């Protein structure tokens, strides 16, 4: 099988990076920053301040603002329900009214009807399916018999039959949505289907959680073939997504220019022996395929099974990371409230993710104020530059945490770097621009704060290569990049995917600030 990370330079591996690298001759000729560039940033910041309490004007401003990367993004939750219904129609899938869901053909079971033409033949059922596949009714304050938490997590099984058949269209949709939102990078939780299918069917009759080494040894002979199958499937998915977006042609969609790498995920609620095998495959895949960078855990952290097994899951990750040291770890941790989980579950999940599993980013991190020794954990995160992936819409809908109850400003005041993320854009009916608007309206972030969050998103991404900034300090130039327009700095982009996207972001900021400074609609009368 393919070993190491030798494919990093191939056009199959990263066509969007190859295209960006072709622009290097232009980048090398970019003029050094001038006083006028500083002036336009100041003007953009002043304009932002004048409209900072107006959500509509803020959205116009922030829609066009370059935002770097989305580091917390689940593939299956990103396309919108309407897209899933369109794909179901193309495949002649079925829908059911009770429960409202998409199901595979043939449409012969009681209550099943074809999805073909549903929008025209039964618009009421069509709307009901959209509601079932998303949190649309929660956002509209419709009185339903489920919490936002229940509606959110319950929606995935309702569209799983179609999303599992459409990895190529899922990836194409993600890239296009990101491009619309002025994102240049997505770090996507997206497993090869072959690995997930194997995992749920696997068995280990000799499983003993106290002997992970023996469990790994029993499974090791199967790993190489399964990883190779996963690599081949992802090759196919990327090729087909590129065809959907017409990449490499005169009609290429903007999504072609969005760079995507992957984080592998494990399902917390699987039986422990199956989760261990799933994670082992994820770590091995990262070692073998440079498109895969990190590992995470998904599904509700407040589920009693997840709480009971949390320490074991952390030990699994630590064990496997010793065997596969190329992998990075970014764990959903602290996605908890006292309303959902008992107090003892909020004592140490974030701390344990860092201390036991070696997580170098934290997803959500909502319960930090409830954790024991939280100040110590915050100090460590600040010192070691362990960023927090902030998901404002998600935390509002799923946990009921918003405004001053959200720890975003606690992290910032403690010196912990933050990034803004979408989590599950389609299910949540949101986008990255809304996360920026909410950060401004609800948490008081100014223009330069949001610009820093965008820079953070690329600095703390698991992207390979040298940064243009001092380690963990985006905005503070490295010795090579005292001027981001210098020849030495621009040369980094020839060898570093991270530097390439960081330099593009800086160029995009300069262009945006020049343009937005001329926006007269928001000038005082």
TrEMBL record:
Tell whether Coiled coil is among the UniProt keywords.
no
**Range of residues in the leader sequence:** 1-37
Which is one Pfam family of this protein? Answer: A_deaminase
Q: What is its EC number?
A: 3.5.4.4
Q: Which cofactor does it need?
A: Zn(2+)
Please verify whether the record's keywords include Zinc. Answer: yes
Q: Which GO terms describe its molecular function?
A: adenosine deaminase activity; metal ion binding
Q: Which domain of life is it from?
A: Bacteria
**All copies of domain Adenosine deaminase, residue ranges:** 326-464
Picking any one GO biological process from the record gives: hypoxanthine salvage
State the top-level EC class.
hydrolase
Enumerate the UniProt keywords alphabetically.
Hydrolase, Metal-binding, Signal, Zinc
Instruction: Give a Gene Ontology cellular component term annotated to this protein.
Output: cytosol
Q: What residue ranges carry the coiled-coil annotation?
A: none
Record family assignment: Belongs to the metallo-dependent hydrolases superfamily. Adenosine and AMP deaminases family.
Q: What is this protein called?
A: adenosine deaminase
